[in-house]
Amino acid sequence: MARIHITILFALFVSTAIGQQDSTRKPVLKVLPTAYYTPETRIALEGFAYLSFYSKNAERASNARVFVAVTQNRQLLVDLPWQIFTAGEEFRITGKWDIKKFPEKFYGIGNNTEETTQETYTYRSTGITNRFQRKLTTNNYFGVGLDGRILGAMLPYSTLHEISDTNNIIGESGYKVAGIGPTFIHDSRDIILCPKKGTFLEATLLFNGGRAENVDLTYTKLILDYRQYFSLPKNTVICYQVSAQSTIGDVPYRELPTLGGPLMHRGYYFGRFRDKHLVFTQAEVRKHLFWRLGAAAFGSVGRVYEDFDTILFRK
Fold first, then answer.
1. C-alpha angle 218-265-167 in degrees, rounded to nearest 5
2. Residue 289: which region, alpha, beta or left (left: phi > 0; alpha: psi -120 to 50)?
3. What predicted TM-score, i.e. pTM, was given to this entire model?
4. How confident is the model over 180-191, as pLDDT tens digits?
5. Domain assignments of the chain as residue spans, ordered by start
6. What is the CATH T-level fold of the domain 5-311, as seen in this structure?
7. What CA–CA distance (Å, rounded) separates 310 from 305?
8. DSSP element (H, E) containing 309
9. Can you tell me the distance from the alpha carbon of 272 to that of 255, in angstroms, rounded to the nearest whole number?
10. Residues ≥6 apart with Cβ < 8 Å to 198
11. What is the spatial distance between Cα 152 and Cα 163, in angstroms, rounded to a whole number?
């Protein structure tokens, strides 16, 4: 029987005005330090910086963010995403660069892995994702997508085989991959980071190549992502997302489509489910209450699967 993963959550949040449209069109810089403790990291110090600015004759603000975390166990996270509109929004440049030396839980590959069966491994990696697109018509952009990653060994990878159904976890001892391909985006959202209305659609096809364990890798990856936002009375926004990812070929473990984390299937650990294909949908209602306090209720449904027979429920 097919297993579908569902989350329904309610949360209060405090807005720091990040992503809100600025009628003055002046650059905005915000910095936020934080700290936390977990058994895997011990004491961790974090810093977050956000820059928002308008290019000439652009209706929407561009932004760049920096997130850095350093732990007592000498672990490191650096995350630098950007979303840039050039003058007149003629070009749209989005992407992310990251550096990671951090522990992560391994549950195996597939949709039916168990929560109680897990191992913690540590890895080092650096990667970049970028979409460089030119405007075709209003809100429609076409261009090239570029992805690349270098990853060291997933240590201790000898214990990962005790969980995985396969003896060959592609990329477990490290890999180098890069991908290139066409990408199309329709983006009519009013505010990029915190939309109140508009539509977002991405269709990207990447042709990837690389090397792992002295073996050449080739695979393709298709990304489809649709989001719709509606502004309702009384400071309320309702939105939904439908997303699918599909890979064909020799895909390293950490390049597989992934469910879990703050963006896709909130409430599940990032990387909780990985496999060659993914389908996912979520909906959210958020409401501004007073001052910078708001509330959000959201739910999601999704699954990963190995082949196309599975999603048709013939397995």
1. 40
2. alpha
3. 0.86
4. 999 999 999 988
5. 5-311
6. Porin (2.40.160)
7. 6
8. helix 308-311
9. 14
10. 187, 188, 189, 190, 229
11. 20
